[in-house]
Model the fold of this input.
Amino acid sequence: MKILFMKVKVGIPLDILLDGGIDNDSITNIYGPAGSGKTNICMVAAHEIFKEGGKTLYIDTEANFSFERAHQIENDFDSFMKSVILKNIYSWKEQRDTIKKLQVSDEIKLIVVDSLVSLYRLEINNNNYQEINNQLASQYAILSKIAREKKIPVLVTNQIYSSEGKIEMTSRFISRYWPKTIIELKKSKGDNNRLAIIRKHRSLSEGKYIEFEITNNGLKQVGKFKIF
Ligand SMILES: Nc1ncnc2c1ncn2[C@@H]1O[C@H](COP(=O)(O)OP(=O)(O)OP(=O)(O)O)[C@@H](O)[C@H]1O
Ligand SMILES: [Mg+2]
Done:
């Protein structure tokens, strides 16, 4: 059998939930409400890449990356930060340009976009939605091509909104189509416990989930994973 992709370790909870990590030939999308742990998972993923000697290209559109949290996750903060190429983005146009011109050197072992849709949400309105949706799809296409051709995993985050009592991802049609793996995060019992649930995957069952806890120095598994 020809192996076309590899799994890249990105820490708890994804390594356990996804049987060894995220696929390096495609986009993994994490969505969930505020405080559900999306940024934590991205930072822990960057930390895992650091431990393996690689670098992360980290596009931050909401000033979400917390230096204080990075300190909690890694004692050797300075070395950790040298492995994170942090790009702060402040407008939809800047995001479009950054993704269009993305330069990915050999030392980059992970690309993070946290979040891919926060500036999209601010930009879109009744008059421009077709154009802005096309621009979002084109960013997904570029990231997807980089993953496929360079074998660099791409981790993106997505906010949610509620429609007729159902929780939906922002830009759900586009954001469901492009990523090969989609994970939903939910708050669980206790202040710091969360669930990570598979919503789309090429080889694992949807509904499989893991409970994890946000701790003072990272993320840790709670119990064993189950199927809903
Ligand atoms: N040291 C810590 N110990 C326990 N919980 C923590 C710690 N640091 C942060 N948290 C918790 O992590 C949560 C924030 O997680 P995170 O920033 O990853 O969420 P998010 O899904 O990215 O949210 P947003 O949509 O607002 O960006 C908060 O509930 C916060 O209380
Ligand atoms: Mg966040």
User: Anything to note?
Assistant: Residues 129-150 form the longest helix (22 residues). Residues 70 and 77 are 7 Å apart (CA to CA). Residues 32, 34-40, 64, 69, 72, 192, 214-216 surround adenosine-5'-triphosphate (ligand 1) (CB under 6 Å). The mean pLDDT is 95.
